């Protein structure tokens, strides 16, 4: 990346004479590389996870159990983004929180690399905790590099930053997935640890280029708040230790004693957060109205992510068992399917940006609601498309790899319609009191969707059955049509937000 660093020709010491990263503050290079390596480790491990869980040389679990574990893990990552942001705001500050998060993630991957099923779940927990700590805080530091929301480089900076996410996500399955599947599962997990280690070193060496605000704790806890928080944390930790020790000693412990509470929390907490904000009497009438509209978007998004994130579990497990994973006679690792989405994002995102701008100039750009509902319909269509390879497999044949690529393509187009819109309406419709928390609320839609998938799997629902796939597809399409049909009501609730 050194070649992309340029130095303006102005006199040293004058504004604009410092080194830049594609015309952006030098600190963006540090955050870009840190996020790229963190996503490399995260998506590499995630590509291996469901395959390792069902593999005879792995944990040899059923497809249902593997999907439940995968879904609970992903929901936890997004659920923990809110307390992760809280740590950055109240305890350590963003910079220290990200450094600690990187170390926790690396330790988690190293724990996964140990050839022991006993330590495997502890490793998953550590990666989830570290990812939650890092997710909100590293984006906050990108914002700190710019002079407020009106800095003309700000949006471009976030675009460059998100390219790092997709670069890491694209490369990870090709490298970590290949080594994990073809050589040794635990070596693959170790490569994920190496990736996070490189990201952490990059962050520590380059942190001097970050804005000074990144080291500041915006709203530090008072002594009384620290004491109260520690007491509550110790109490709940003590209850958990005693409960699980009793279950273990009595011989009644099973994995579901962990999975079921976590999936229930993944559904209950998002509902509780939305209810708490909606019932806050300090919000004025306009803010209350916008929150009523936002709930429509939130519920619809949860349905979207419930289906979309099965691309890493249900579809991956299907591909492993029932797809012909070859191109022109050359067989490729199943984990490579997880590189399809990020490469499509990198290819299509600029096209979508240009297309919306061109339509906007003609006054024909679709509204937020139309884009959102279209994304839902497309993710539903992807699962209607999934019925074809399922039917082929039921006939005793292997489904062609292109069927799965077509499903991922349809989901990616849906993501490009829904995800940027969801992020935008979240920031625009956030009540002033909850402005800094609402991005975490948006992530809770992912938590709710994945937790629902986890609950279905724990309940014994076979998510690879055509009837279940058709039901999920229909749910998404109906949700998309409902959002569109009630668009005038939702627009009225949105007030001045468009």
Automatic annotation (TrEMBL):
PANTHER family xref list: PROTON-DEPENDENT OLIGOPEPTIDE FAMILY TRANSPORT PROTEIN, RESISTANCE PROTEIN MDTM, PUTATIVE-RELATED-RELATED
Membrane topology qualifier: Multi-pass membrane protein
Biased composition (Polar residues): 1-14
Chain ranges passing through the membrane: 43-62, 98-114, 120-138, 159-179, 185-205, 257-277, 289-308, 336-357, 369-388, 400-418, 439-461, 467-486
Tagged with keyword Transmembrane: yes
Name under which the protein is recorded: Oligopeptide:H+ symporter
PROSITE patterns in alphabetical order: PTR2_2
Family membership noted in the UniProt record: Belongs to the major facilitator superfamily. Proton-dependent oligopeptide transporter (POT/PTR) (TC 2.A.17) family.
Localization, UniProt: Cell membrane; Membrane
InterPro entries the record matches: Dipep/tripep_permease, MFS_trans_sf, MFS_Transporters, POT_fam, PTR2_symporter_CS
Source organism: Streptomyces pimonensis
Ranges for region Disordered: 1-21
Keyword Cell membrane attached: yes
UniProt xrefs under SUPFAM superfamilies: MFS general substrate transporter
UniProt KW keywords: Cell membrane, Membrane, Transmembrane, Transmembrane helix, Transport
Alphabetical list of Pfam families matching this protein: PTR2
């Amino acid at each position: 990346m050194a070649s992309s660093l340029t130095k303006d020709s102005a006199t040293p010491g004058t504004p604009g004479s410092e080194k830049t990263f594609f015309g952006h503050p030098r600190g963006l290079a540090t955050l870009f590389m840190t996020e790229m390596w963190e996503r490399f480790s995260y998506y590499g491990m995630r590509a291996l996870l469901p395959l390792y869980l069902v593999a005879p040389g792995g944990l040899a679990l059923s497809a249902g159990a593997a999907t439940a574990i995968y879904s609970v893990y992903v929901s936890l990552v997004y659920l923990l983004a809110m307390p992760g942001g809280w740590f950055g705001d109240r305890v350590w500050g963003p910079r220290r929180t990200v450094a600690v998060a990187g170390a926790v993630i690396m330790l988690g991957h190293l724990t996964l690399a140990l050839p022991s099923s006993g330590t495997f779940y502890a490793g998953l927990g550590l990666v989830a905790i570290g990812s939650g700590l890092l997710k909100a805080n590293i984006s906050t530091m990108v914002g700190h590099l710019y002079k407020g929301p009106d800095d003309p480089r700000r949006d471009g900076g976030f675009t460059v930053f998100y390219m790092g996410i997709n670069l890491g996500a694209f490369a990870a399955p090709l490298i970590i997935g290949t080594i994990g599947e073809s050589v040794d599962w635990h070596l693959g997990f170790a490569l994920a640890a190496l990736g996070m280690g490189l990201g952490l070193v990059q962050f520590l060496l380059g942190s001097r280029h970050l804005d000074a605000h990144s080291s500041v704790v915006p709203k530090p806890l008072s002594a009384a708040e620290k004491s109260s928080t520690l007491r509550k944390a110790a109490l709940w930790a003590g209850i958990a230790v005693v409960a699980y020790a009793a279950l273990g000693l009595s011989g009644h412990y099973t994995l579901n004693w962990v999975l079921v509470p976590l999936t229930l929390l993944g559904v209950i907490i998002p509902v509780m957060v939305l209810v708490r904000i909606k019932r806050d009497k300090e919000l004025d009438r306009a803010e209350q109205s916008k929150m009523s509209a936002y709930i429509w978007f939130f519920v619809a998004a949860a349905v979207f992510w419930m289906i979309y994130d099965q691309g890493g579990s249900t579809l991956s497990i299907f591909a492993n068992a029932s797809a012909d994973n070859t191109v022109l006679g050359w067989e490729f690792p199943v984990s490579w399917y997880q590189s399809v989405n990020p490469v499509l994002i990198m290819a299509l995102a600029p096209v979508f940006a240009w297309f919306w701008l061109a339509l906007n100039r003609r006054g024909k750009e679709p509204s937020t609601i139309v884009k959102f509902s279209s994304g839902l319909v497309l993710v539903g269509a992807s699962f209607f498309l999934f019925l074809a390879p399922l039917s082929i497999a039921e006939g005793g044949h292997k489904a062609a790899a292109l069927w799965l690529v077509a499903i991922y393509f349809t989901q990616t187009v849906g993501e490009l319609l829904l995800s940027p819109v969801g992020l935008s309406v979240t920031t625009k419709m956030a009540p002033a009191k909850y402005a800094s928390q609402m991005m975490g609320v948006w992530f809770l839609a992912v938590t709710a969707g994945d937790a629902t998938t986890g609950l279905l799997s724990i309940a014994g629902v076979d998510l690879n059955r055509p009837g279940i796939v058709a039901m999920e597809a229909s749910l998404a399409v109906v949700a998309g049509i409902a959002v569109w049909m009630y668009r005038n009501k939702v627009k009225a609730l949105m007030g001045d937000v468009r």
